[in-house]
Amino acid sequence: MKFGLCLTPIYPQAIQDCTLLERLIERLRDQKFFQCVELYFEGTQEERNRIRGILENTGLEAVYLGGLPIKRDVVDISARDERVRKESVDACKRHIEYAACMGCGKIVIGSGPDWKRPGCEEQIAEQTRKSLEELDCCAEGMKLEISVEPFPSKTEPCLAVGNTHLVWKIFHDSQFHNVGLTFDTSHFRQMQEDIEKSFHLLQPWIHHVHLANCVMKDKNNPLYGDKHPCFSQEDGEFTVESIGSFYRKLEKQGMLTQVDICSLEIISRKKEDWYYREACQEAEMIWG
């Protein structure tokens, strides 16, 4: 397993600044603790080629964080409307091509918005599975895995595919070859699920893990919900010690044998360099 850091959530300006992103990737390499960088980048074909080159030079594995543009652009692979679903699959295919161009080994995606009506889980599962089958074919031969990240459906960002039961419905009888799951600890805690039980149930398809924190006790807290603060956050759901304990317990139980990348995900609020240093310190405390 390789340890990684979600880099552009800490340095969002690097999403559109190729030179900055190159410099940050080199700095991450020099950290000598991480073997993987997770990023999202909006640039020209030439700039994507530059990013591929720097990744090859540093030897870092790369994951393309497709969840950001998918949420922002309301890409909806779980849509009821077939036209919307097909357009959304095409949008995901473009991101898959961008990810492959930069040499990423994985692309993280999410579903579309929650349908917000009871009794529609079967339909959501059917539409999502159909889209994933089409994307699975697209990824064939690209040496790239599509990793579906469940998100909260009742709180922001309110996506359709989130709770463990629904995710299991989509995957349990699937025949995917290039599709797996990203398990984000924060998302399952936001859904008030037992993260250990959820992990055990979905373990056959989990190849990628995000260790992330959240604040859920106070809805008036500016960090409430899907904000991914540091593990040192006073009122966070996890501490460095508890998330480290969760990781080591899964490792001891043999539940991480199919996970090839485990990354720390923290979102900065200005003071990017401070958040970067904090993330590096917390990573060493969790995995060191």
UniProtKB/TrEMBL annotation:
Organism in which the protein naturally occurs: Candidatus Blautia pullicola
Has keyword Lipid metabolism? no
The record places domain Xylose isomerase-like TIM barrel at: 34-270
The protein's superkingdom reads Bacteria
Q: What is this protein called?
A: Sugar phosphate isomerase/epimerase
Q: Which UniProt keywords apply?
A: Isomerase
Question: Which Pfam families does this chain map to?
Answer: AP_endonuc_2 (PF01261)
The answer to whether keyword Iron applies is no
- Please give the Gene Ontology molecular function terms for this protein: isomerase activity
